[in-house]
Amino acid sequence: MTATASKTKTMTMVAAINEALDLALANDPAVHIFGEDVGVMGGVFRATDGLQAKYGVERVFDTPLAEAGIVGMGIGMGLAGLKPVAEIQFAGFLYPALDQILSHLGRYRHRTRSRYHLPMVIRAPYGGGVHTPEQHADSPEAILAHTPGVKVVIPSTPSDAKGLLLSAINDPDPVFFFEAIKLYRSVKEEVPEGDYRVPLGKARVVTQGDDVTVVCYGGMVEVAQKAAEAARTAGIGVEVIDLRTLVPMDTETVLQSVEKTGRVVIVTEAPRTAGFHSEISATIAEEAIEFLRAPIVRVTGYDAPYPPFTAIEDVYRPNPLRVAKAIKKVMAY
Prior knowledge:
The protein is α/β, with parallel strands linked by helices.
């Protein structure tokens, strides 16, 4: 983790993202930002607010409602030597672009035997917690993690959002950057000013503990922290690990924690079947089964579309109580 300035200021996650994009535009003329409503409007969550006025319509511009076109245009821009930063308005709108993603985006380094790189970032808000309409709270990270050639990054704090986004924009390969809607304005913290970087592929140990490892990312980190606090009052030490980057995953940090605790709970809000939690679980089973004192427990969403608007969301989305019950279950085995 590096920063060129020692000063910090209190920011929300969406403000930290805006500052990262501002810095990227200022420091590199190859950076271009585009997507639905990102220009004049500044994005539906105002993540790009003020950037078009500052840098002009040629570098920050609106696109038609055409996700396949947004990604396809970004691929061309990246191959031409630019650094495109595209926004998909919600991660659940990504599906029309899957042909571009699966057939082209992740394949160019392999296709050209590393003669060409494709430095493209695709930002998208994801996840629940704010009662959005249908398809606005989807968590499709497992689809992308299953796509060779792309990286997947999901921050959980304002400082990580800024540092990871600047690292993603300067990465030579395509990066999907998912931003938890629930965290955009609900959390504030001190964020380093200036060109501050957090390396991709390095997890963060959020809390230290000797009894149970809880692996999570994005919007589930605060849920896991609350469950860990409740467990601590019962004398259970919980080590919460925020992956930050799913691809590449920091397997070393996860396995070191599992070797210490011997018990694992994995928390994600995506549907249960074939989610990224399954990949984490399989990795632990393959690499650290001799250290496990109990079966791995997953706390996830359900195998159903994310419920729109209603309070049913509070049942679908994992909460601290569900995580606390999972911690109790592995401790009782």
